[in-house]
Amino acid sequence: MASRVLRAGHDLTVYNRTRSKVEPLLALGAKAADSVSELASCDIVFITVASSGDLLAVLGGDSGLLSAKDRPEIVVDCSTVSGEASAEARAAAGAAGVQFLAAPVSGNPRVADSGRLTMVVSGPKESYEIARPYLKLVVREATYVGEGELARLVKLCHNLFLGVVIQSLAEITILAEKGGVRRADFLTFLNDSVMGSAFSRYKMPALVNLDFHPTFTTHLLRKDFDLGLGAARELDVPMPVAGAVHQRLGEAIGYGYGNEDFAALVEIVARGAGMEIASENAPVTDGLDPTD
Hints:
Blueprint: H1 2-7, E1 13-14, H2 23-27, E2 31-32, E3 44-47, H3 52-59, E4 74-77, H4 83-95, E5 99-102, E6 105-106, H5 109-113, E7 118-122, H6 125-138, E8 141-146, H7 150-178, H8 183-192, H9 198-202, H10 204-209, H11 218-234, H12 240-257, H13 265-272
């Protein structure tokens, strides 16, 4: 995401608590900050962190973004966090005179590299319009859905669907394999049919060759299921299918797949079918060649 801003010719200052992660951006012309608070003099600050607690820590405290004398005009948070944490972050930003946009993104690093990320945004409409040209540098589309924390709910709904789809995809793939069909052949057929999707295509290498190098870990997906099912309870929406997938994610973590890509659910399904599956070492593509 950051490299796309740099390649568009904009000045960019970056911070990560693990300095080595920003080195490739420095080679592209970015400046490095030594602390979060050093970013406060920037007009717009993008945040991407793993959890609700991380977001509040980045904003608050003696060395947080809002602790500096200077303040950014707009903070754009691209994380997937709870609505409650987002509202707390928005209140803290507002008290410091900073506009806050909740703007979680959909897509893994390969999707980001290919220019196909999408984003859902909520917050002050005027701030969205100011930030929109910069949002469009890093995502294919930024959809504004209204004020407050609505973007958080949309992203949680998205990730609940993500988990349900990968579980279903794993189940039908193992069913085909147990009946004698190679996973590569089944998924090639599926992806060429009306049921194929960008998601089923870019998960094909993981399902076929059992490469679970994480694009999104099982731990993180379960975290989003915890948040999403919490929202469902609050809004009295029954979600029996998502609830069942939540249990399978816990099972996968129990088997040691917590830090692996969530596509590892295919091995959990195979275990339940009494199968040991192996990589097919097939030359399949994820369909995510980079675009401008």
